[in-house]
Amino acid sequence: MTRTASADSTPRTRPEPWTARWPAPLAPGATLGVWAPSSPAPVVFPRRFARGVTALRRRGYTVVTGESCRSAHGAATLPPADLAAELHTLLEETDGVIAAVGGWTLTPVLPHLDFERIGRAGRPLVGYSDLTSLVNLVPRRSGLVAFHGPMVVSEWGEADGPWQATEREFDAVLGADPHPGGRTVVTSGDWSDENLFWDREDDRRRRGNSGEQPARVLRPGEATGPLWGGSLLVLGLLLGTPLWPEPAPGSLLFLEADGMAPDELWARLEQFRLAGVLDRAAGVVLGRISGPRPTASGYAGYDEILLRCLPAGLPVAAGFPLGHADPMATLPVGAPATLHCPDPAGTPTLRLLPPNRS
User: Fold this and answer.
1) What is the CATH number of domain 31-181?
2) Which pTM does this prediction carry?
3) pLDDT exceeding 90 applies to what percent of the chain?
């Protein structure tokens, strides 16, 4: 891709009341740009990356890979300013951008991004994990919905393609006519959090089924608000900095606690409570915890920790398909949704409201 100069811009958070507009949809035959700001995984795991690109092309997309997908400079792919410039160009020259994979090196890129320019481009941006910070910053700084969803290496690069539910949710949310009357996020019980060595074990088979973990109600109630959230670990990196993407009052928080033991989950939720983040929530959804593990004492009460830390009166659900497990939902960050939690014996639902493109 041709590089352009980046603008070091940190616009102020938009005033309340706040809503984000949906970007242009991905029509059949759309061109997707692939951006790798978080790790050089496309270079380190070329076969899995190639499988992911092939899977997207089989869905009818034209795929353009940025220079970051072909570069490795230590822990990163390109210098931060170059990565920012590449994202600006990809958003302006393609129909949407999907991250190659997560990692740890996106944070130094954030100060170099021009969020007004990203908003003017009006294109969808998809990612999670290390991309959590960006998909929350884009709605708050540019007024444009971004998407917490599957990435090229981790989901699209699965042997035999991504899980069908992951594909269906991606197409339904990002497609040309997404849920005109609203759409309920699919929460099938089957899932997998198995770790396979990329370009070794995963050449022979896809991730195995980890059993059934249906979505469940922890506290009944109903709430509607803009979606905000993702990886607790990544969001915590920005708390207290000028780049903190503060949730709007009345937000629906969806949180991912990948690999956390209950005591770490408690500590991170307490950090958010002390910072006032949880006071801005209208309801909370916790994703399935990939790699769950007990504390050193053997305690494994994730649900109890949630109810202990979250403000009284909030509807709370757990076991949703978010983040580092398959299948994975695609969530429009900054767009309104309704969380419905019936009595604890019932099944919670998360319903995306019709898109606002004005």
Assistant:
1) 3.40.50.10740
2) 0.91
3) 68
Domain boundaries of the chain, sorted by first residue: 31-181, 184-352
Asked if 140 and 110 touch (Cβ cutoff 8 Å), the reply is no
Residue 323: C-alpha distances to residues 86, 231, 257 (Å): 25, 8, 9
Q: Give the model confidence (pLDDT) of 78-91 as tens digits.
A: 999 999 999 999 99
3-state secondary structure the chain: CCCCCCCCCCCCCCCCCCCCECCCCCCCCCEEEEECCCCCHHHHCHHHHHHHHHHHHHCCCEEEECHHHHCCECCECCCHHHHHHHHHHHHHHCCEEEECCCCCCCHHHHHHCCHHHHHHHCCCEEECHHHHHHHHHHHHHHCECEEECCCHHHHHCCCCCCCHHHHHHHHHHHCCCCCCCCEECCCCCECECCCCCCCCHHHCCCCCCCCECCCEEEECEEEEEEEEEEEHHHHHHHCCCCCCCCCCCCEEEEEECCCCCHHHHHHHHHHHHHCCCHHHEEEEEEECCCCCCCCCCCCCCHHHHHHHHCCCCCCEEEEECCCCCECCCCEEECCEEEEEECCCCCCCEEEECCCCCC
As a whole number, the mean pLDDT across the chain is: 89
What integer pLDDT is reported at residue 213 of this predicted model? 72
Domains 31-181 and 184-352 agree in fold: no
Tokens of 281: 């929530």
Range from 34-38, 187-191, 343-347 carrying the lowest mean pLDDT:
187-191
Confidence of residue 10 (pLDDT cuts 50, 70, 90): very low
- Looking at domain 184-352, its CATH class is alpha beta
C-alpha to C-alpha distance for 33 and 94, rounded to whole angstroms: 6
Residue 96 is encoded by which pair of tokens? 């949407």
Neighbours of 33 (CB within 10 A): 25
CB 227 within 8 A of CB 329: no
